[in-house]
Amino acid sequence: RTAFVVAIDGPSGSGKSTVSRRVAAALGLAYLDTGAMYRAATWWCLERGVPLTAGPAVAAEVAALPLVMGVDPVSPSVHVGGVDVGEAIRRSEISAAVSAVATNLAVRAELGRLQRAAIAAEADAGSFSGGRGIVAEGRDITTVVAPDADVRLLLTASEDARLARRARDVHGTDDAAAVHATRDEVLRRDADDSTVVEFQVAADGVVTVDSSELDLDQTVRAVLDVIGQVA
Ligand code: C5P
After folding, report:
1. Residue 14 annotated as binding?
2. Annotated binding residue at 51?
3. Domain at 4-230: CATH code
4. Is 0.85 exceeded by the ipTM?
5. Which residues contact 176 (CB under 8 A, 6 or more apart)?
6. pLDDT tens figures, 10-54
7. Which of 29, 36, 38, 64 has the lowest tally of Cβ within 10 angstroms?
8. What is the atom index within ligand 1 of the atom nearest the CA of 189?
9. What is the pTM of this model?
10. What ranges do the domains of the chain cover?
């Protein structure tokens, strides 16, 4: 195997999506946003009118999910049934609902299978990366989806830093009102997600990068440093 696999996990607001994209672009690797896959599955179930608490019905929808992930780190894309859902899946109703889908173990098995296939496809010369490899990012990539990745990283940040980042993403400001408005969503989502995946503590062999005191460029450099020590 020559393709290089980088696995990055972390809680919401840790900056892992932006950092992973920048790292993938810098190294000429593909980029897989697995959170976008859970969001797309949630969007699809809501679109189809399936109650998210109906576990087996949700699992059946996801088993037939017509999902296509674009893995170019400069312009990643998500299509479901031919519809570009890149913006729709970032809306607050999806953020509020996604944990109900992500805590469905049959859904995790199915999306995990798709994620492994997407990672394996990047070992192919005919892939986006021409066989160079991929940066895959989420909550359980270092532990469940790609535990044998060449580099495994946990990107963390203090709660204050994560809430401020999230507030800037969603509201364009990190003043007290914006932080308050994102607080419940972020903390409840992390608490719900934590019931099925561990992404707050690094597993054995996983390197932690704490971005609380780092800006984006510094965080990208810290991650590239870790990768450079392994590659
Ligand atoms: O990373 P992002 O905030 O877009 O992830 C959205 C949701 O997808 C998370 O809150 C979690 O419920 C789910 N997720 C997951 N496992 C992953 C990636 C995301 O359960 N590997």
Report:
1. yes
2. no
3. 3.40.50.300
4. yes
5. none
6. 998 899 999 999 999 999 999 999 999 999 999 999 999 999 999
7. 64
8. 10
9. 0.96
10. 4-230
